[in-house]
Amino acid sequence: MDRNSIIGFLLIGALLVGYIFYNNKTQVAAQKEKHRKDSIAALNKPKEDKTPVVDSTGHVVTADSATLAANYGVLANAVAGTEQVQVLENDVVRIELTNKGGQPKLVRVKAFKGEGAKNNKQFLSSDGKPLDLQAGSYNRISLALPVNGKQVNTADLYFAGSQIQTNADGSQVVTYRLETGNPAQYLEYIYTLAKDSYVVNFNIHAVGMHNLIAGNTLPLQWNSRFTKQEHDMTSERMNNQMHYRLEEKGHDYFTLQNKSQEKLEKVQWLSFKQQFFNVTFMPKKGTFASADITTNVPQSPNIVGEQMTTLQLPYDRSANYSFPIDIYYGPNHYKTLKSFGNDFESIIPLGTGIFAFVKYVNKWIIIPVFNLLSGSISNYGLIIILLTIFIRLLIAPFTYQSYVSQAKMKVLKPELDALRAKHGDDQQAFGMEQMKLFRSAGVSPLGGCLPALLQLPILVAMYSFFPSSIELRQESFLWATDLSTYDSILNFGFEIPFYGNHVSLFTLLMTVTSLILAFYNRGMTDQSNPVMKYMPYVFPIMLLGIFNKLAAALTFYYFLSNVISIVLQFVLQNFVINHAKIHAQIEENKKKPKTQSKFAEKMAELQKRQQEMQKQQQSRKK
């Protein structure tokens, strides 16, 4: 490996390390006014169950009618009741609805319906239990209705629930009605779950409520908490984010922080995202007028994060008001999310920051090939092997040019060593003579550097793709029980600084093969320069601690790619590239008359001036 190849790979390494640290660093949300945060948090905080006790006849025995009327007005009769649960369910999701608030009580994501060999994969949490995306009293959907100068949350009231209706297309519908005592004035929540869909349509239907509700917006409270579903809590919290798309500014997101807050205007959709799943609110018409979001990351080993949001719904004050919202409870699967349009698939991190451009490599090359392979192959380890081979074939022309450049530098190495010995510590003079030698031999000094840099988008694309691919979740291969997280063959029970609390075998194999590759190329490097001599060995060790906690699919890919590089280099250098022919071509190039470009002439003139100035300075010192 020549000096320029080493420089190229070092640049790749430096950029890759920078990207990794950038990607791992959580984004700090902007802090807003404290009084607004406190007020919204108080508004959204789930209330304690203070439902009055009723006797056998249904009469309230803990509060008198006058108190109820003062606090709840026309909704007083809905304060007490008996909780009843109804279930909307298809092959992929189960939604348990309660008449207490007319809202989901539990959301269980059951299966992944894909087009591949595993087209009905069951979803489970890391401990083997059902994957409940939403469960517990913290999660709630509630309108804040103004009654007698107070806000009454519908989550605290009892609705009258209809029987579940199954339509001819397989969809299921249930309606919850909040009575006011006036048949011409009521509030309805209508839930519709289509067959094999992760989306439940939530239609807010208000009849005759315009006399009760003031203003042009209707506040909808949405509280949600994610509990631990994956093996690695650190990775889950890194991917615990709020994504959104604004009407004027497009898609953006922020990572959850402790007690952070954000205010958004004209929101086309809002998504609470986990590592592999999300809950998203998408209005069927128009936008949410605004969204006040308060997030928190509790000091809990089981809670990944939680958010409390007030969505302001546009309210036209009509006597028959309707605002339908599609709520997505499902996986972060690229093709599924893309089918909704409106940049919904952007919640999957296929390339961010300074490497945002690699998302196009993933969208246009990696994902289509991965889907093609998974359509007929059920073993994802084999799929990764075939995908790696495909990628290596894709970059084969650049790889070949890099090896040819190495061969040319190997042929020129004796002459370069002679020049280095001749000029000693005079690096400027050596550089000028080196450039002359390259020009006369017809060798580009960037021949080994540029091919390596052109491989960078592929390397970073794979770094983004594998940890984000839900298809790899809980898929085993060899000793790795889950390709979406690290493959631990030994747990220490304590943390080693800059390394972790476990040993990832794929990461060790990746590091060992990187060192073998560096050792194999030691003859191609400048052994007189300590940096060039030792950096190829130091760099893989530096990456060991970083990759030790990354997805096994990613480290397996890098290990396999290293093995292919070692085999390719051995075959090409020994059986394909003709060093004698290259040497003859270089000697022939030296005999040809050379014409310099204007840029080369200016560089040569600049080097000559610098050399003259250096000689003048040395003579003055004498």
UniProtKB/TrEMBL annotation:
Which residue intervals make up region (Disordered)?
Answer: 589-622
Tell me where in this chain the Membrane insertase YidC N-terminal domain is found. Answer: 88-356
Pfam families given in the database record: 60KD_IMP, YidC_periplas
Q: Look up and give the membrane topology term.
A: Multi-pass membrane protein
Q: Where is the composition biased (Low complexity)?
A: 613-622
Q: Where in the cell is it found?
A: Cell inner membrane; Cell membrane
Record-annotated Membrane insertase YidC/Oxa/ALB C-terminal domain positions: 380-573
Entry's CDD domains?
5TM_YidC_Alb3 (cd20070), EcYidC-like_peri (cd19961)
- Please list every transmembrane segment annotated in the UniProt record, as residue ranges: 6-22, 347-367, 379-400, 442-466, 498-520, 541-560
Keywords per UniProt: Cell membrane, Chaperone, Membrane, Protein transport, Transmembrane, Transmembrane helix, Transport
Which residues fall in a compositionally biased region of kind Basic and acidic residues?
599-612
User: What is its quaternary makeup?
Assistant: Interacts with the Sec translocase complex via SecD. Specifically interacts with transmembrane segments of nascent integral membrane proteins during membrane integration.
Regarding protein family, the annotation reads: Belongs to the OXA1/ALB3/YidC family. Type 1 subfamily.
> Which HAMAP family does this UniProt record tie to the protein?
YidC_type1
The protein's role, per its UniProt record: Required for the insertion and/or proper folding and/or complex formation of integral membrane proteins into the membrane. Involved in integration of membrane proteins that insert both dependently and independently of the Sec translocase complex, as well as at least some lipoproteins. Aids folding of multispanning membrane proteins.
Q: Per its record, how is this protein called by name?
A: Membrane protein insertase YidC
Organism, per UniProt? Chitinophaga horti
